[in-house]
Design goal:
four-stranded antiparallel β-sheet; alpha/beta; Rossmann fold; 232 residues
Length: 232
Amino acid sequence: MSQSPYMVQLDRITKVYQIESQKVEALRSVSLNVRKGAMVAITGRSGSGKSTMLHVTGTLDTPTTGKVILGGVDVSTYSDAVSSRFRNRKIGFVFQMNNLLPEFSAVENVMMPGLIAGGGKSAVPLRAKDLLKAVGLGQRLNHRQAELSGGEQQRVAIARALLMEPAILLADEPTGNLDLKSSEVVEELLLDLCRKNGVTMLLVTHDNELAQRLPSQVVMAEGNIAEFGGAW
């Protein structure tokens, strides 16, 4: 990645979906610059374009028009194969559904991005264990998904997202399925780990209290950015 001061730059992004005979504009000329190490909450009503913007930023979806520049690199024209490698090495994801593989243990789930990248056989499990200890699951390394609470599962997902030391963390309603106590634990973990590691985070949430805990906020409406809040 280049020496650009911005980790995320969205330049006039549009996203149009064709649903049968109808075109749906999910994003309408969205532009956003996020500095390295910034933590930004993205809020707005359902259907406002929050998750679509996150998916386009993370190269999970391609823009119809516009550019996605991550760390100074234009990734919007990458092929699927190149995008996949880029995501694996540079971007961590935490979704509302933790997407853990139920047949594998916690440490094996955390190891997955490293194994996909072809990482060293000894280095990957060691880092996975260290991350699980960092999220308070040092005693749960060999437990499978069914043996973990919802909050514990989400902590495994956070550890997995950080395994490759990503420059960017994208979180989509990471506490949406959790009870209040578990939500507070997961929120604190995300914020603390991002601060300690200098990770740039974009976090989609319906929780206004969580949004206000992040230094910067974006409000989406009808496929575009309607409002900025906090420090920019």
